[in-house]
Write a structure and sequence with these properties.
This protein has 267 residues and is α+β, with helices and mostly antiparallel strands. The chain has 4 helices and 15 strands. The chain has a single domain, classed as Creatine Amidinohydrolase. The N and C termini lie far apart (35 Å). The structure holds 2-amino-4-trifluoromethylsulfanyl-butyric acid and cobalt (II) ion (CO) (2 copies).
């Protein structure tokens, strides 16, 4: 398709959509406790989106070769890497779950996800979630005009692998705007100085999927969506939508409930 560059109106549309997507996660946060099912989380989100006046971008989403996605968000628990479909299984103490929300407001898309710790979780699970969060930010802080997509991927990969983890290759971040998935692909691994050069007005997601074990993934079952780690190791993911500005970046999916950026991120 080609990269789209947002003008002032587009940027304002993306700010609003991004903020609203993040506010869905804020709203869900106190509910994500042992005993709730992911289907109940989905229903809470659907009701909240209705109040916001947003539409879920995932409900009915059907890229070619896929069945229509059946829910208002994705819930990926433990060794599920991404695209987990909400179901009637209750979350239990010790689980980690990624909740990934994409909303549409006035035609603009906002896409963001966070990890949630369900009750007390193991030190290993907590570290994976924390390192993945930092990995996302190592990518975000690269963003400014002149930098290339390979620099973002390299920064994420270096930090994640340096922490003893692996980076999923099959799924990536993406341009986003008035469509859910636009060019460019934003890989979470790579070589410095390679691939597309960033220019002001680009908006894309950074959403690394990091595995505690090997990087390989496979489809789970036959729902056509759920992706799990091949070795059943835990997987974590965080996602922000970002804008390339004249001198750096603006994160479009921050809200009151967003965790603070890690200390290496300058104001
Ligand atoms: N929100 C996901 C992303 O970050 C895409 C989910 S598509 C779905 O790109 F159909 F699985 F919901
Ligand atoms: Co995304
Ligand atoms: Co997403």
């Amino acid at each position: 398709m080609g990269i789209t560059y947002k003008d002032v109106d587009g940027i304002q549309g993306m700010r609003v959509a991004g903020q609203l997507a993040a506010e869905v996660l804020d709203y869900l946060t106190p509910f994500i406790k042992p005993g709730i099912t992911t289907r109940e989380i989905d229903q809470l989100a659907a009701d909240f989106m209705k109040k916001q006046g947003t539409t879920s971008a995932t409900l009915g989403y059907q890229p070619s070769g896929y069945p229509a996605y059946p829910a208002s968000l994705c819930t990926s628990v433990n060794h599920v890497v991404c695209h987990g479909i909400p179901n009637d299984k209750a979350l239990k103490k010790g689980d980690i779950v990624n909740v990934d929300v994409t909303v549409i407001m006035d035609g603009w898309y906002g896409d963001t996800s966070r990890m949630f710790l369900v009750g007390d979780v193991s030190i290993a699970a907590k570290r994976l979630c924390a390192v993945t969060y930092e990995a996302m930010w190592h990518g975000i802080v690269q963003v400014r005009p002149g930098v290339r997509l390979g620099d973002i991927g390299f920064a994420i990969q270096k930090f994640a692998e340096g922490s003893g983890y692996s980076v999923v290759r099959e799924f990536c971040g993406h341009g986003i705007g008035q469509r859910f998935h636009e060019d460019p692909q934003v890989l979470h691994y790579g070589r410095p100085g390679t691939l597309e050069e960033l220019t002001p007005g680009m908006t894309f997601t950074i959403e690394p999927m990091i595995n505690a074990g090997r990087r390989e993934v496979k489809e789970f079952g036959s729902d056509g969506w759920t992706i799990v780690t091949k070795d059943h190791s835990l997987s974590a993911q965080w996602e922000h939508t970002v804008l390339v500005t004249e001198n750096g970046y603006e994160v479009l999916t921050l809200s009151a409930g967003s965790p603070p950026p890690p200390p290496f991120v300058k104001g």
